[in-house]
Design a protein that fits this description.
Two copies of one chain form a homodimer. Chain A is of the alpha+beta class. Chain A folds into three domains: 4-87, Rossmann fold; 116-174, Dna Ligase, domain 1, CATH 3.30.1490.20; 178-368, 2-Layer Sandwich (D-amino Acid Aminotransferase, Chain A, domain 1), CATH 3.30.470.20. Chain A has helices at residues 12-24, 52-59, 74-82, 91-98, 100-109, 123-131, 161-165, 221-234, 269-272, 277-285, 318-323, 354-368; strands at residues 4-8, 27-32, 43-46, 64-67, 117-120, 137-140, 151-154, 170-174, 178-188, 194-196, 200-205, 208-214, 239-248, 253-259, 299-306, 329-332, 342-350. In chain A, strands 9, 10, 11, 12, 13, 14, 15, 16 and 17 form a nine-stranded antiparallel β-sheet that branches. In chain A, strands 3-2-1-4 form a four-stranded parallel β-sheet, sandwiched between helices. In chain A, strands 5-8-6-7 form a four-stranded antiparallel β-sheet, sandwiched between helices.
Chain lengths: 370, 370
Amino acid sequence: MARTIGVIGGGQLARMMIVPAIELGLEIKVLAETEGSPAHLAATQVGDYKDLETVRKFAKTVDVITFDHEHVPLQVLETLESEGVRFEPSSNALRFAQNKLEMRKRLAELDVPIPDWAEVNSASDLDDFIAGHSGIAILKTPTGGYDGKGVRVVRSSSDATDWLALGKPLLVEEKVNFVRELAQLSARSRSGQWKAWQSVQTIQREGVCAEVMSPAPNADYSKAKEIAEKIAIGLDVTGVLAVELFETFDGILLVNELAMRPHNSGHFSIEGSLTSQFEQHLRAVLDLPLGDVTAVSEYAVMLNLLGSDDKNTFVEHYAKALKLGSGAHIHTYGKGARAGRKMGHITALSNESLDHARAKAMAAYEALQA
Amino acid sequence: MARTIGVIGGGQLARMMIVPAIELGLEIKVLAETEGSPAHLAATQVGDYKDLETVRKFAKTVDVITFDHEHVPLQVLETLESEGVRFEPSSNALRFAQNKLEMRKRLAELDVPIPDWAEVNSASDLDDFIAGHSGIAILKTPTGGYDGKGVRVVRSSSDATDWLALGKPLLVEEKVNFVRELAQLSARSRSGQWKAWQSVQTIQREGVCAEVMSPAPNADYSKAKEIAEKIAIGLDVTGVLAVELFETFDGILLVNELAMRPHNSGHFSIEGSLTSQFEQHLRAVLDLPLGDVTAVSEYAVMLNLLGSDDKNTFVEHYAKALKLGSGAHIHTYGKGARAGRKMGHITALSNESLDHARAKAMAAYEALQA
């Protein structure tokens, strides 16, 4: 049986994959960009994931490769796949995660509900779309964006002269008037097994995930799951798939973004689900039977720990935070402190209410601040 | 805050300490005896823990040192303590874990219930004790024994001529006529906080732990906890303390063995307790507030996965075992296969009964064989 998993990228997602690898007795090796990455314990190689030779060398040390992020160039993936290297997800799926324009085209083909969109190749393309959508739109660079980067609200093509000057196609979308944002996490294996966690509600602040509530209160769970399954199959996704959704004032769900890897919206599953997203990802990548994703408690709330400055790593406040005995589970990622950086997260469970879970998490959150 | 924990020994206990270190964002470094140990992911040094210079070098890379086993020579510990190195547990406690004769003397001083015992320095010492105890006794080498090694049933001094010839004191104990064996796991921090998990029942086969039931059905929990606390304080134990107990036909609890580290009888706590023994051990070693040890479910059963031959590492049967969807949690330790070796364990939880938990664990256990 394939049992040595390679992970490209040494961030917190790779770090959290190490845990189920230890527990299940699987070998895990990480190709990190830098020394001292969050996943340094499993880092067997440090190098540039954009370099074919670097990735080829790494591939020779593992049975199958998965990812901490979606940024490995498609050409690198395709070349190595032609040499027999197994990536999960494969280049067939990742091409859509890497290019938002390709993703929109494919989702439209699949008849998945998405916001109005168009490809923009000129200022007039953009102005036409804006004119047809109440004078406002969301402009995106098809590649390279994450956590709010590569996304801009525009009211005229003059708001995007820099991007238009690059001469590359852009993606424009309607600015969806949404009530809230949801996410649907699921996992699919190569042999086709698919399992979905409960739909969650996410709260973003300044384009970064701040809070996740599981389950999303009063949401159309069956629709969210139907969309996620359609995408997982239609885009041939293997491993964890996160589908970020807008819920409109009419209660319609529209797909916002996709991530083909464990995702911030699924961190609650470490304590909140019988099988965490990280264990499920490893199972899916190895094409092992997927685990039971039943919730461990009625409610879970996850709060992200974003860096407040260049000093507080939160660990120095553990004595205070753990003394509360609130039952909140504190995770930090071993990163140097930097304002706005994702440094860790807190999950609290409750059988009473989301508010009860949030209060427990918030107590720990506050104790960890300066 | 001290946050870099050193662990001497690269076995499965060190391996399982890596998990809470990753989750809590603590640094963990392991001094392993060999390359490719179960804890190899965190192994920053490979060397002989009996060598002062090796341990001194390791100590310089960490804030505090704890253990995967109790075999570091007392002299090494004492020398480095005099140089300012912090060990948890310290040599003050470990002297009792390393020497069963010293342990019996100290427990007798503390008035902890123990089997009848005597120090043996000659054949006649031994024959006298045997004569006073219905012609049978348990003879132990005070140092170096574990998992049934260094323990022998004797009916006459002629059963122990080899050990007596060594000219070192031996420990003889009455052969306790016990109904069953229990274990009481607890943890204590340097500043004196102490917390105990539920008392468990253990089933040994050929001197090796085979099964653990949590909680032990119908046991004198308060007595078990009282004994454990007395020992933790009286022997100045820090970190996890496992107290193995005999329950006699009169319902009396007698202390059999001690372990001053996470212990096989506490593996159920990974899934079965809000705070696992491995997380609690790290907290205690860093003198952080101890976590809540409330049980996650009414019942938990752990089965050890002992090697059946030199081939089956159990991982190759995961597809079959995980397909059962029994909800059992399978752990393997990344060891090469060897008959009788502790290769992993399985824990299953239930709110119905111990039998229900055992059935779930046993289904996975059977699927992992051959």
